[in-house]
C-alpha cells in the first residue's frame, strides 16, 4: 500500500483518500497500485458494501505526477495504472466519488466509472489530453460521448475546456454540486452508508443491469487508447507540450 492513499473501512464503507497534499494529490504508480488492490479486495469482502474515492476538502487530484508519468510506462496491462482502470471499470460494488478543487485528467475520467459523484460547486474538472499532445484514456473516448453526446464530449476532449462543479452537475457528469469542503465529503459518506444498509444482492444486480455491456466496451476502448497513448507519449508534440508545461511556457508545435 502507498502512504499517499489512506484506506479506512467503517460500517460497510471502504474509503480511499488521496493523501499527497504537497503535490495536489498528483497520482503515482504506487498510488494507482494501492487503489487497485483495495478496490479489488473489496469485491471479495462481504463486509464492504460501497467504496468512496475522495481527496481532501480542497483538492481531489491534479492528475498524473508528471515525473512519474513520463518515466514509467502506463499502457502495459501489467502496470498499476491499467490495474486501477480495470478495477474501477469492473467493480461490482458501487463506487462513489467526492470531488473538491481540481480534478484533472484521470481525476475526471475516473468519475465516468463511478455510480455516484458529488462535487464542490467550484470544483475544476478538466481533461487536457490533446493540450499535452496525448489522447483520451480510461475509456473516456467511449464513455463521455455516451453520457453527454458527441458535441459536448468533443468540446471537453478536443478543447480541454474546464468545467466548474456546478456546470458538471448541469450536464450530467455529477449528481450534486455542494458548497466546497467537508459538505462534499460528507455527502459521499452519507450516500455510501445508505447503500451499505440496502440488500446487497439487489444493489449488485441493479448495478450489473445499469452497466450491462458498457464495461466490456469500455475496457476494449481503454486498450486501444493505451496503445495510442504510449505511441503519442514518445512523439515530438508530446515532448514539447510536457516540457512547456514543466517550464511554464506556451508550447510551440512544428507543422505537420
Automatic annotation (TrEMBL):
Protein's UniProt keywords contain Isomerase: yes
Pfam families with a match to the protein in the record: ECH_1
Main location (coarse class): other
Superkingdom classification of source: Bacteria
Species the sequence originates in: Pseudomonas neustonica
Subcellular location: Peroxisome
UniProt-listed InterPro entries: ClpP/crotonase-like_dom_sf (IPR029045), ECH/Chromodomain_protein (IPR051053), Enoyl-CoA_hydra/iso (IPR001753)
Protein name as annotated: Enoyl-CoA hydratase
Keywords: Isomerase, Peroxisome
Coiled-coil stretches: none
Classification via SUPFAM superfamilies: ClpP/crotonase
Amino acid at each position: 500500500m502507498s502512504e499517499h492513499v489512506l484506506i479506512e473501512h467503517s460500517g460497510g464503507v471502504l474509503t480511499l483518500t488521496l493523501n499527497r497534499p504537497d503535490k495536489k494529490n498528483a497520482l503515482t504508480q504506487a498510488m494507482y497500485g494501492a487503489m487497485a488492490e483495495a478496490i479489488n479486495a473489496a469485491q471479495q469482502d462481504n463486509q464492504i458494501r460501497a467504496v468512496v474515492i475522495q481527496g481532501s476538502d480542497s483538492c481531489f487530484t491534479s492528475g498524473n505526477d508528471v515525473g512519474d508519468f513520463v518515466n514509467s510506462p502506463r499502457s502495459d496491462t501489467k502496470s498499476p495504472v491499467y490495474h486501477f482502470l480495470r478495477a474501477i471499470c469492473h467493480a461490482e460494488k458501487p463506487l462513489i466519488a467526492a470531488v473538491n478543487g481540481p480534478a484533472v485528467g484521470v481525476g475526471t475520467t475516473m468519475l465516468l466509472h463511478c455510480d455516484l459523484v458529488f462535487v464542490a460547486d467550484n470544483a475544476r474538472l478538466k481533461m487536457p489530453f490533446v493540450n499535452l499532445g496525448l489522447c483520451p484514456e480510461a475509456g473516456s473516448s467511449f464513455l463521455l460521448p455516451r453520457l453527454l453526446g458527441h458535441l459536448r464530449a468533443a468540446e471537453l476532449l478536443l478543447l480541454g475546456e474546464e468545467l466548474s462543479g456546478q456546470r458538471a452537475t448541469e450536464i450530467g457528469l455529477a449528481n450534486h454540486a455542494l458548497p466546497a469542503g467537508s459538505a462534499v465529503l460528507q455527502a459521499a459518506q452519507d450516500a455510501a452508508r445508505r447503500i451499505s444498509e440496502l440488500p446487497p444482492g439487489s444493489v449488485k444486480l441493479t448495478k450489473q443491469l445499469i452497466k450491462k455491456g458498457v464495461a466490456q466496451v469500455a475496457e476494449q476502448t481503454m486498450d486501444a487508447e493505451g496503445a495510442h497513448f504510449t505511441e503519442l507519449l514518445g512523439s515530438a508534440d508530446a515532448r514539447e507540450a510536457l516540457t512547456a508545461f514543466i517550464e511554464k511556457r506556451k508550447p510551440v508545435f512544428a507543422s505537420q
